[in-house]
Amino acid sequence: MQPTKTTITGLFSTPLQYQIPIFQRGYVWTLEKQVAPLWADIHDRAAAVVERNALVLQGNGATLKPLQKHFLGSIVMTPMPSVFGRAAAFEVIDGQQRSTTLQLLLLAFRQAALQLSNSPVAQMIEGLVRNAGPYQCQEDHFKVWPTQAGQDEMRCLADLGTTELDVCARYPAQEGRRRIERPLMVQSWLYLYHGCLAWLRGIDLGDPINSASDTTWSDQLISDIRRSNWVAPLGNGQALDNDRAEALYMALSEQVQIMTLTLETEDDPQIIFETLNARGEPLLASDLVRNFVFLEAARQGKAIDELYQNYWGPFDLVPDAGKGAAANVYWRQKERQGRLTYPRIDLFFFNYTVMRSQDSILATHVFQSFKAWWQKQPRDLETELERIRKASEHFRELVSPEGTGWLAEFARLVKSLDVGTITPIYLALRERLDADSPELRQALGDLASYLTRRAVCGLTTKAYNRVFIRILVAICDPANEPAAALREELLGFTSQSEVWPDDGTFRHALKTVSAYKVLRPAKTCGILRALEYAARGSQQGSNHVPVQTELSVEHVMPQSWANLPDYVLGDDQDDARLAREASLHNLGNLTLLTQPLNSSVSNGPFADGVDSGGVVIPGKRSQLGKSALLINTWFQQGNISVWNEEEVARRAASLASAALLVWPRPCDAAARPEQVAVALSGR
């Protein structure tokens, strides 16, 4: 490895290009965490140059000590083969965020310097932001060439004719009332451009905007970049100072240093990449997996661009009609599993690695576990990448269900019950069984029954990791039929920590458990919603059931019943109160609504009333009966005039009958909608 110390201008002074490998992550530096601190460091060194220049003008230059230099970090790269008619190029192994941001700084400085009068600074910067050519490929003119997700932004920002207004118009912060997140690369350029303008006007972004505020100019600038389509210049109207422009250029040329490390033939890029990955924005486990796989592809002489486009591209890019491709934010968004939250792509690789290794792993050791599994035996790259691609589609249908099909409804139930630990099992089943196969429906039906019955019965989930690894091993055994192996395992469990509750236990729990407290509202809503879905058939015209976020759980007997005149107790006050409290959170007293009732109806009388003028005042029963949800057809019965513990128990028994139809043990066939609908209605 050949180390070389250089400066920002030195890094870009020769006609060469720094290429970010197509399989590396896109630009991820944010304003608060990296860009603003970087600018503060550069501002500090430029201010030191201004102060030194002032002392020199005063005749004190002879006694001055050299200015202290600021070290920005390192960039690790490897030379690429020379090609006639192409720019000399280096592939960036580590430091792509830093090198990209420094190029954005120079592009921003050039744009600000173009507004100076009689200054050579903009022209001096030109050679630092553009390779003059001529070249066979237009992209060779760029000093830094990012991954596909950032190429559109780099073209826009590097165009000499592009103004700040053009950038803001192309990448707005909002359309109408809808907020849009500008690409991080654009945010960084806007911050650095306005930082340069502020510097030329003598404004320090770290200063408060006024003496009565803790808000700094930097805070205000970041807010404008995130919220406003047009970012107002700081100190607009103040003159731009040529001397300060020259001082900033000198700081970039002399006072800010970078170490470049050029790999030699014997150096292993993957080892170096893993060693240095803690710098800047921490790499995701998936970033390490991606680099490991594609560096392995490079060692084997594979066509990396083709492999990336065919198998990995969808993780990073989505088609965009206006720009060709845009960053795929879906996989970087956070998803919760258990008590922790991870980017979806890391959560996918966590579950994928568990599925492949058939063993428990730590969420903090995903890459190490993936690498250990991969290296156990020779792997065919195309085969493994295709398996990853297909598994990612299955993962997405589980964590982000769409449509009204039974697979999507299974996924919604799993999310409501908060049992993401079954994800490796789901991935394994989907890999081996077709989506429309009876075997998959049987397997997922058994799983849904197992999870729901245990949840309603209040049984622990603490052993699920061990339980599901045992199931995973069974269904992945090539000698086994997956659905049959799954059922055999579930039926064989006998201890309380893993048993599949039988019908008697399940029915008793459904009729007696305080579901709203034991399951909490989210799980209660998910179970009631699943009953609603199962009751819908062709007579409904559609299987569409509102998603859980559009539903609310309603207590038929209000939780504040003790303070309401319409829910009186019998003679034995103490026993009656205990019985009522026991039934208050029972499933029989809970239902679903697409819109919450207003408080006067929710806490009002159950039966209809008549006012002094003889006009009928609809009670709660009538309002519930108007609901389009089948779970509320119970309240259309004309013989229910009061709502008390007896009615709660009667409805709980009816819901229990429906639940036994929907979640049998074992699950040999889907419940007939008309049977579930009859059970829900109490007919």
From TrEMBL:
Q: Where is the GmrSD restriction endonucleases N-terminal domain?
A: 9-294
Q: Name one matching Pfam family.
A: GmrSD_C
**Protein name per Swiss-Prot or TrEMBL:** DUF262 domain-containing protein
Q: Which PANTHER family match?
A: DUF5655 DOMAIN-CONTAINING PROTEIN, SLL5132 PROTEIN
Q: What region holds the GmrSD restriction endonucleases C-terminal domain? A: 500-656
Q: Which organism is it from?
A: Stenotrophomonas koreensis
**In terms of domain of life, where is this protein from?**
Bacteria
